From TrEMBL:
GO CC terms: cytosol
Keyword Plastid listed: no
GO MF term set: GTP binding; metal ion binding
A GO BP entry: division septum assembly
Annotated HAMAP family: GTPase_EngB
Pfam family for this entry, one: MMR_HSR1
Protein name: Probable GTP-binding protein EngB
Keyword field contains Metal-binding: yes
Gene that encodes the chain: engB
InterPro entries found in the cross-reference section: G_ENGB_dom, GTP-bd, GTP-bd_ribosome_bio_YsxC, P-loop_NTPase
């Protein structure tokens, strides 16, 4: 599939405001500032399709992109979780909308879990794997910002995460990634194809 044809479809504050729940959706989830929006831009080969920021908490809505005019194939940029500086009540509200989306979105066929290779497997990441497991939803893990580590250190991080997630191995796949260097983009395309092509 041609991910470079992706274009902005809509933003939704809640599950109820998301577009019709048909076709196939793949959502990018992960901790605030992990690099989800940057990963979407690297994967779609566009500079500013998804808005990125140095300030954690940039993405506050469910942002939905279609592959060209095909509204039945969608990529979704989710708000990051775990950002401490947002007021508690707002945080709980985001968390609830996110949880609704993850549990109840029927067209959601795969999750891309984005983790900073230097800070993988936070409590929230593990919660997310539980939710995916409940739904039998496959998860592709991007250990991103791999450019921040030397090659050997990045490889070690990958091995460590693999072994810590052995119990989920039927559900998940894992790779190193860098939006900055566009490392690993082809592998993500293949995974997305496997979910989106049928
Ligand atoms: P929220 O929307 O706040 O949840 O964040 P996000 O997960 O969408 O992160 P975003 O893509 O906005 O990136 C956060 C910061 O990390 C930005 O300053 C990016 O430039 C930087 N960043 C993202 N990916 C990479 C990468 O692969 N390498 C490097 N070096 N920096 C990256
Ligand atoms: Mg974002």
């Amino acid at each position: 599939l041609k991910y470079s044809t992706a274009r902005f479809l809509t933003s939704a504050p809640t599950l109820a405001k998301c577009p019709v729940d048909s076709g196939v959706e793949v959502a990018f989830a992960g901790r605030s500032n992990a690099g989800k929006s940057s990963a979407i831009n690297a994967i779609t080969q566009q500079k500013a399709l998804a808005r990125t920021s140095k300030t954690p908490g940039r993405t506050q809505l469910i942002n939905i992109f279609s592959l060209g005019d095909d509204v039945d194939r969608r990529l979704v940029d989710l708000p990051g979780y775990g950002y401490a500086k947002v007021p508690e009540n707002i945080k709980q509200e985001w968390q609830r909308h996110l949880s609704d989306y993850l549990h109840r979105r029927a067209s959601l066929k795969g999750l891309v879990l984005v983790m900073d290779v230097r800070h993988p497997l936070t409590e929230f990441d593990l919660d997310l794997l539980e939710v995916a497991d409940d739904r039998d939803l496959p998860v592709h893990i991007l250990l991103t910002k791999a450019d921040k580590l030397k090659k050997g250190a990045a490889k070690n991080a990958l091995q460590q995460v693999r072994s810590r997630l052995r119990e989920w191995e039927d559900l998940i796949s894992i790779q190193l990634f860098s939006s900055l260097k566009r490392q690993g983009v082809e592998d993500v395309h293949q995974r997305l194809d496997s979910w989106m092509e049928d």
